[in-house]
Each structure stands twice: as C-alpha cells, then as structure tokens.
Write a structure and sequence with these properties.
Blueprint (H helix, E strand, L loop, with lengths): L1 H12 L1 H37 L3 E5 L3 H9 L9 E2 L1 H8 L3 E12 L5 E5 L1 H6 L4 E4 L7 E4 L1 H5 L8 E6 L12 E8 L10 E4 H7 L3 E2 L36 E2 L7 E2 L1 E6 L2 H9 L8 E4 L1 H44 L1 H9 L4 H32 L5 H4 L1
Parallel strand pairs: 4-9, 6-8
Antiparallel strand pairs: 1-13, 1-14, 2-12, 3-4, 3-7, 3-13, 5-8, 6-9, 7-8, 10-11
Length: 386
C-alpha cells in the first residue's frame, strides 16, 4: 500500500505529464475499440436487414440512395415511380410485391411515415404488441421506439409534415390516428410510423376530402379533373371519410419504391431482366450486392484507422519508456537517498513499476468512461451512422 501511495503522490506532482500519458493511452485504445465496434454494428445492421430484402424496384439513379430510403427510410426518393409497376409485378406472380411511399414525417422525433399495404407486415413479419393494424384512411401504427420515447397512446393523433420544410407545394398535412404499437424489431421499423397506401396518396395530393358544402375550385366533381378543396380536412373521421376521393389514373399514382420478395430464384432473375435496359427509367437492384460494395469501402477505412490507432498506441508506449528512463535519470539523487535509508534496487524497480501500473490503470478507467459515453450517445451503433 505504501508503494501505491508514494507512486500516486509522485504522479500527482507531475500532473501534466501524467495527464498527457493517460490521455494518449486511453485515446488511442478507445479509437481502436470504437472503430471495430462501430464497423461490426454497421455490418450486422446492414446484413440482417438487407439479406431479408431480395429485390428493390425504384427510379434509376444512385443505387445506394435507393437502398437507404427503401430499407432504412433515410431520404425520400427525389422522383416517384408509377403504381402501375406494382400491378405489373403482382400480375407476374413472381412473389410478394410491397409498395412503399415515403414523403412525410411526424412532428415527433421526425419519425418517417411509411405508406404501404398489408403485404409489408407479412414480408417483414411485423405484428402489433397493442391495438390493431391500420384498416382505413388516416390510421397508423407506430414502432416500439416511437412509443418508448414519447407519450403517444392508442387513440392519439400524430401531426404529419413534409420531409422537406421548404416544400411549399405540398398539400396541407393531415393528422394520423394511432391504432396500434408494433412489436420491437431492433430495426428501422421501430422508429417508423406506418399507415395505409391510400393515406400516403392523400399526403401527395392525389386524393383529398371535402367538408359539407365545399365543392372546392370546381363545382362539378364527377369527372377526372383535379381540384382543390377550399377548406382542407386535416383529420379523417368516420363522419367525413366518405368525402375522400382520388383523381387521375390509378396506374400513375406515386410510389417511392417497390420491395419484391420472389417466390424463387428463377422469378427473381426474370424480374431483374426486365429492368436491365439502361434506357428504362426504372431499375431493379439486389440490395445485398449494393451494401457489400459499401461495406468493402468501410472495411478499408477501418483498416486505415486501426493501423493509425496501433501506431499511436505504439508511439505512446515508446514515449512512456523514454519518460520512465528520463525520470530515473532525473531522480538519481532521490533514488540514492532511498538506497541510503535502506531500500534495495528491487524496491526502486517496484516503485517505478507501480507508477507505470497506475498510469495504465488511470488510462483504462478513462477509456471505460469514454466508451460508456460514446455508447450511451449512440455513436457506436449503426443507427447513428446509417
């Protein structure tokens, strides 16, 4: 115990050098651990979610962006695809075809609002923990994380808003009635609000409702021409739901993407072949292939950062050795005094060893605290970076 007390007193007297060594050791070690932890988390998140989505049909462009907004609901598609493509895929009987429409988010935590059909719940194996699935216009279910981080209960209403705050052409947002809370999946669905596809089309202005006596910008609402209500309905209820209607050709209604879950490999290959033409404005991608390309780049970055961390750690160890040797030289008189009062050479070695051990211990504690702070803030999780 006396060795520890003496070593601690000496390190306290050299606080700036001690702090530099501790910061260098803990920082280099933490960087190495954090990089490996983050890459493993991203790899796991991508692999689990992507491997369960065989094929995506979307607007031709960045394949990675298509994967992000179709699977992780990160950025809405800048251009939509027609609903008729879903009808074609469904008619081919190639498997489960799931439409997705993502244009809005909620005012709470900016959770994405995903408009889809019952096929999505079947394909993703989603079930409600409380309540029921959305069955009519204006109803929605919320993910487990949305429920945990808010005071939303079944029967409450969520305010929708365009994903882009500068989209002045967007119709007046409507409120969504929460009718269910989904089971936890530890994936993107936990932070999502899922509603019916028809409700999503109301978000885009394809459909709308009229209050009694409001004929909108046109008195004759029997033909296919679009019109705008003078007083938009912002909350869909049993009393006004029959006033909602849609305009235009259903085949042209917008979708963000289509998820395809083929019944077999042959069906997937045939469907892929329909979109190989570069002149086709749509594309069919296998998200697993796209993510693998991205992960290869991530692995290269991880390798570089790991090498930098190891080199930094090696430099710190070398610096500690040099400082220890210099410290012994500068403390020559102090060590001679210890010998004069009866301390042998082994005692001096134990004292220096105790000082080094304390530095390593302080570094380990600092690294542990840093790791806990990073983990609690979510920096080490895939959801922070995806």
């Amino acid at each position: 115990m006396s060795f520890i007390r003496i070593a601690h007193r000496f390190l306290a007297s050299q606080k700036w050098i001690t702090a530099l060594l501790v910061a260098s050791f803990s920082g280099s070690s933490l960087l190495l651990v954090a990089v490996n932890q983050t890459v493993e988390s991203i790899d796991s998140a991508f692999s689990d979610r992507v491997s369960s989505t065989p094929l995506i049909i979307g607007r031709r462009g960045s394949r990675f962006d298509l994967v992000l907004h179709s699977i992780y609901f990160r950025n809405p598609a800048s251009q939509s695809i027609p609903y008729g493509e879903l009808q074609i895929a469904a008619a081919a009987d190639s498997g489960i075809s799931v439409p997705l429409l993502f244009t809005h988010e909620t005012s709470i935590h900016h959770s994405p609002i995903i408009a889809t059909t019952d096929a999505y719940f079947i394909a993703r194996k989603l079930a409600v923990a409380i309540g029921s699935m959305p069955k009519r216009l204006g109803q929605c279910v919320i993910g487990a994380s949305v429920a945990d981080t808010s005071n939303i209960q079944i029967g409450d209403f969520l305010q929708s808003q365009p994903k882009s705050a500068f989209d002045v052409t967007s119709p007046v947002p409507i409120e969504l009635e929460v009718v269910g809370i989904l089971n936890r999946t530890n994936g993107p669905d936990d932070m999502a609000v899922i509603t019916t596809l028809e409700t999503g089309w109301i978000f885009t202005g394809t459909g709308h409702g009229h209050i009694s006596g409001d004929d909108g910008t046109r008195t004759n609402n029997t033909d296919g021409e679009s019109h705008i209500p003078e007083t938009p309905i912002t909350r869909i209820t049993d009393e006004n739901i029959n006033s909602f209607h849609f305009h235009g050709d259903e085949k042209e209604y917008p979708l963000s993407a289509i998820l395809i879950f083929p019944k077999d490999l042959q069906a997937q290959t045939v469907l892929e072949g329909k979109y190989l033409d570069d002149n086709n404005p749509l594309q069919a991608i296998i998200p697993e292939h796209v993510i693998q390309e991205v992960l290869e780049s991530v692995y290269r970055v991880e390798s570089i950062l790991s090498v930098v961390s190891i080199l930094s750690l090696a430099f710190v160890v070398l610096m500690l050795v040099v400082l220890t040797v210099l410290s012994i030289q500068l403390r020559k008189q102090e060590i001679e005094t210890l010998h004069m009062i009866g301390c042998n050479r082994s005692t001096t070695i134990k004292l220096v060893g105790c000082e080094t051990t304390l530095i390593l211990l302080y570094s380990a504690i600092t690294m542990a605290v840093g790791y806990i702070l990073l983990w609690s803030s979510g920096v080490l999780t895939a959801s922070y970076w995806i």
